[in-house]
Amino acid sequence: MEHFDFAEGRAILERTPAVLDRWLDGLPEPWLRATEGPGTWSPFDVVGHLVDGERTDWIPRARRILDHGTSKPFDPFSRALHLERTHETLAQRLGEFAALRAANLATLDALAIGPEQLAKRGVHPEFGEVTLEQHLATWVAHDLDHIVQIARVMALRYRDAAGPWVAYLRVLRPVAG
After folding, report:
1. At 115, which CATH number?
2. Which one of 10, 45, 115, 122 has the minimum C-beta count within 10 Å?
3. Terminus-to-terminus CA distance in the chain, angstroms?
4. Distance between CA 143 and CA 48 in Å, rounded?
């Protein structure tokens, strides 16, 4: 298992908005609104969730760790806040995500985080004490997790149409526990 490498992690974080923009912008609505069923998210929803994380999670919590350590726990994060913003378009969400991510990466760069800062601890409302390294590694993995989620949701639209090839396509088979 690898430790978090700031430069490598940042390379993923800076590319995610462009990946999503290139992949999703201009697709027909059925691709953008596909879900895995009731209570699950579409690609449109995922982008909204990523916007919310840029606004209220990653940098605010990193600053909380650096400024207050364990003396001031993180504010709770609403994973479903984006579901209230039904008036937005995908283009708006993608644009806002790109702008917020660029600003957050500039902030992160200005913090000049080194090994000493990565070891600092904060308090997550569910997990208890966490390190800045864990928080930043999670940010990177979170991006990748949602990219996988979008691919899975989109692929499932053609599950039945793929017929017997489902046996060879992991993206079309149920995920084990």
Report:
1. 1.20.120.450
2. 115
3. 21
4. 13
Single out the residue of 92, 112, 113, 116 nearest to residue 32, CA to CA: 92
Residue 25 in domain: yes
Q: Would you state the structure tokens that stand for residue 135, as one six-digit string? A: 């928080």
Tell me if 177 is assigned to some domain. Answer: no
- Give the residue ranges of DSSP H helices in 3-110: 6-24, 29-32, 43-56, 58-68, 90-110
CA–CA separation, 24 and 26 (whole Å): 6
Q: Which of 111, 136, 109, 45 is nearest to 83 (CA)?
A: 45
Q: DSSP character for 72?
A: S
Domain that holds residue 50: 6-172
Q: How many domains does the chain have?
A: 1
Residue 1 in domain: no
**How does pLDDT run across 62-93, given as a tens digit for each residue?**
999 999 999 999 988 766 766 677 789 999 99
